Amino acid sequence: MNMNVTLPGSTGLQFKNPILTASGTFGYGVEFAPYGDLTSLGGIVVKGLSLEPRAGNPMPRIAETPCGMLNAVGLQNSGVETFITEKLPKLPTDELPVIANIYACDPAEFGELTAVLAAEKGIAAIEVNISCPNVREGGILFGQDATLAARVTEAVKKAAGDKPIIIKLSPNVTDITTIAKAVEGAGADVISCINTLSGMGVDIRTRKPLIANVIGGLSGPAIKPVALRCTHQVCKAVSIPVIGMGGIASAEDVLEFILVGAHAVQVGTSNFLRPDFSFRLVKELEQLMEKMNITDLEEFRGSLKL
Ligand SMILES: Cc1cc2nc3c(=O)[nH]c(=O)nc-3n(C[C@H](O)[C@H](O)[C@H](O)COP(=O)(O)O)c2cc1C
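Above: the input record for the complex with flavin mononucleotide. Below: its predicted structure, written as tokens.
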């Protein structure tokens, strides 16, 4: 059985299976090592990094919703330098593709941050978050405007050297294909989609919002149909590879994203339900493929009958 994924084009990115973990839901990877073999995963995307440390938003920052969760963590992180000196050396980067996820306030800062990470041998690729709904400066604005999205992509590409760049798109737009085409045109190597959907929850007894930021990002199985629709549309609109995500909670879900054309997937909220979720999912996907007589994922990919 062939679960290997080789991304087409000049990225050189290869995963031993299509299951990666999504940014912000798997720490810096190190925290999850007690729950499974990190090198059994296709890859990991670490928590969003900024040039300087960020404290994030005030608490409460997460709330459960039917079939999902709301979060407004606000990109809390220890800053890129601490990641490079303290976290990255603890990861088995020879055997595990480690993807850095980045966030900045303007295109120049995106470029500066990229240059710092591009110098690190242990980083397989850089995923650019132009789609965070939970921060005041920049954040989702970059992902909602085709011109701004292209400008960030160009700045990152210029600073990335030979590291592949993945642009992560927001579902909170009128037409996701416009943004996808703009970032492809500006030099993106890969697109990942989707980030969280803008959402809100309130408590009628306390008359307060569920999270202090009022508005947050909805994730988990509740968003899977939206994520699948976006992935399908983006795969049809561009010719660069696409990594799909949003609500993946089973091996069947993984195959759904691959069926609509994704080369690989990322698993997010399910990691909060069980810290060993992604490790188990790799084994479950193998079993499901065997049961369904799928011997080659690349043959199955994009074979949706329309
Ligand atoms: C608590 C939390 C923190 C997140 N932090 C980031 C982040 O730092 N950068 C980013 O690009 N996406 C972040 N995301 C979005 C996820 O990576 C993913 O795109 C989204 O949750 C959809 O996948 P899921 O439904 O499987 O969780 C975060 C999501 C959650 C739930």
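Notes for the reader.
The radius of gyration is 18 Å.
The pocket of flavin mononucleotide is lined by residues 22-25, 47-48, 71, 73, 75, 101, 129, 168, 195-196, 219-220, 223, 245-248, 267-269 (CB under 6 Å).
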